[in-house]
Amino acid sequence: MALRALAARKSLAGSGFQRILGARGLQTFSLPDLPYDYGALEPAISAEIMQLHHQKHHQAYITNYNKALEQLDAAIAKGDASAVVKLQSAIKFNGGGHVNHSIFWNNLSPVKEGGGEPPHSSLGWAIDQSFGSFDALITKMNAEGAGLQGSGWVWLALDKELKKVVVETTANQDPLVTKGASLVPLLGIDVWEHAYYLQYKNVRPDYLKNIWKVINWKYASQVYEKESA
Amino acid sequence: MVILAVLAAATTPPPFAAPNSLTSALGPPWKGLTGSLGSPSSLQWLKKQRQCKRKAGTSSICAKFELKPPPYPLDALEPHMSKETLEYHWGKHHRGYVDNLNKQIEGTELDELSLEDIILATHNNGDLLPPFNNAAQIWNHDFFWESMKPGGGGRPSGELLELINRDFGSFERFIDDIRLAAATQFGSGWAWLAYKANRLDVENAVNPNPTDEDKRLVVVKSPNAVNPLIWDYSPLLTIDVWEHAYYLDVQNRRADYITFFLEKLVSWEAVSSRLEIAKARAVEREEEEERRKREEEEKSSDGEVAEIYVDNKSDDSEAE
Fold first, then answer.
1. Which of A149, A194, A201 is nearest residue B252 as measured by Cβ atoms?
2. What's the number of domains chain B is made of?
3. Between chains, do B252 and A173 touch, taking CB under 8 Å as contact?
4. pLDDT given at position B207
5. Do A150 and B189 make contact, defined as CB atoms within 8 angstroms?
6. What is the SS3 assignment for B267-304?
7. B150 touches chain A (CB under 8 A)
8. Does B97 reach chain A within 8 Å, measured CB to CB?
9. pTM here?
10. With B21 labelled, which of A43, A155, B151, B281 sits at a CA distance of 20 to 30 A?
């Protein structure tokens, strides 16, 4: 999707020196477009928040992820084991930031395009099985999200091993996979302050209450159906 | 005469032995809470004792923790830190930590502890207990407000500057270090300048070859509510890098906020006076440890001497 070859970009930029980064060339990442306008989620999430969140925060994760990947590539080429290990935290943070936000944008949808409409498909049934009801899931995710100390994410996930949907939280930009290899993210809610502060200030619970009005359950259902088949 | 006295001491246990071993077996009353993280006296320098009022009967009622205002009006840091930011940061976030902690500790054994002791007790060797975040965030914010002043910034002077030059190479290098720490703290957290006294980072370990160079300034960062008290460092300065500290003023531009803090807001006077206290505390602790070591040596050498005399009893008798 948002891939392109760094080597190609370098030569296009006219450096005249094409770096061979790894056998197949190093793939770097670029900012994916949002599937809706910045203002399309109002009043639940303001245009200002969406724009900063997408253009500044997500972009910064991508920029720093690409930087770390280039450094990683160089370290591997040199056989510098300690440099490879040292880069892991920057890769997890910035790579996680890119992965998480890419999912997050798909998890949101304007009301007029079906945002907030609860799932009626097999995902709806799975939610009832695991949590008792759709409302119980929302209550649980709101509580987990409000209680999360500092920055992080609250997730609805499919556990492919247990074959059920579960709620998880991750700290900072840790991607969901850090909580278990069998977990597939269906829905991630960003509870970093940058996701809501300009609009909701210190009242994270209000942000959590309102975000359900623009959750794209169609997307979550599609992922669920594909992954649980 | 002397020999006889020592022999007597060797055969009959000294009168202090029994109570002594009893108390060490039980441990001091705070032991269960703070573990090996530090003796209560080691925290005395920064301890803000709460006033406990004794009611009739044996139970004492502790005053609740109170929200301490910054040492300047909320608009005093403008334009570098807005009144609106302070209204939320102090008036909502800081207040929230105070209110929540008071609720959490009411009626528990933490109720009578100082804020610092609650932090150490609930840090629980990294396995955080629920009140930790609120307690540490109260401490961090009190410390943060006092790290700034209207018309701050500039350069430190005197001994603080000397130590900065010694331990970082130059003031500019120090600024680079703390700026980097603040910029690269992943997620919410804090960047610190701290005075690291002559201690090893290993529990209960004693530095076998202490030198004055061991006592130095360090820059560290910490996630979420964690602060250097739990590493037994003395904090001198902190920058809050939770997004709520700067988002209303500069949004995602954390680097700009760090620059404002270091160039326009930091109170080097506060840092200098904290350094004085930290140094005095380190000396006090060294003296205390020396005294404890001497006492232990005296105690054990008493025993050894007695044994030697016991072993050589026959020789001694002959000599007599």
1. A194
2. 1
3. no
4. 64
5. yes
6. CHHHHHHHHHHHHHHHHHHHHHHHHHHHHHHHHHHHHH
7. no
8. no
9. 0.81
10. B281
User: Which strands form A152-159's sheet, in the order they lie side by side?
Assistant: A164-171, A152-159, A183-190
Give A149→chain B minimum CA distance, Å.
Answer: 7
Q: Which residues contact A58 (CB under 8 A, 6 or more apart)?
A: A31, A97, A98, A101, A102
Note whether B72 contacts A: Cβ–Cβ < 8 A. no
Residue-wise pLDDT tens digits, B56-76:
444 555 668 999 999 999 999
Helix (H) or strand (E) holding B145: helix B131-145
The pLDDT tens digits of the residues spanning A148-183 come to 999 999 999 999 999 999 999 999 999 999 999 999
Structural domain including B184 reads 83-277
Burial group, residue B176, by CB count within 10 angstroms (0-12, 13-18, 19+): middle
Q: Which domains does chain A have, with CATH numbers?
A: 44-228 (3.55.40.20)
A70 vs B319, more confident: A70
pLDDT at B298: 86
Q: Across chain B, what does the average pLDDT equal?
A: 80
Q: Do A56 and B252 touch (CB under 8 A)?
A: yes
How many beta-carbon pairs below 8 A join chains A and B?
A: 54
> Is residue B157 one of the residues assigned to a domain?
yes
Residue A101 assigned to a binding site: yes
**What residues of B are in contact with residue A194 (Cβ under 8 Å)?**
243, 247, 251-252
Instruction: Find, among A180, A135, A136, A191, the residue nearest to A157 by Cα.
Output: A180
Residue B296 placed within a domain: no
Whether B155 is covered by a domain: the verdict is: yes
| A143 vs B38: which has the higher pLDDT | A143
- Residues in chain A with pLDDT values less than 50: 1-23
Q: Is residue B6 part of a domain?
A: no
Q: Please report, for the domain that includes residue B144, its CATH number.
A: 3.55.40.20
Question: What's the Cα-to-Cα distance from B44 to each of B47, B52, B115, B121, rounded to whole Å?
Answer: 5, 17, 12, 15
Q: Does B255 touch chain A (CB under 8 A)?
A: no
Mean pLDDT of B218-226: 97
Q: Which residues of A touch B225 (CB under 8 A)?
A: 149-150
Q: What is the torsional sign of CA A190, A193, A199, A204?
A: positive
- Collect all residues of chain A within an 8 Å Cβ-Cβ radius of residue B88: 201-202
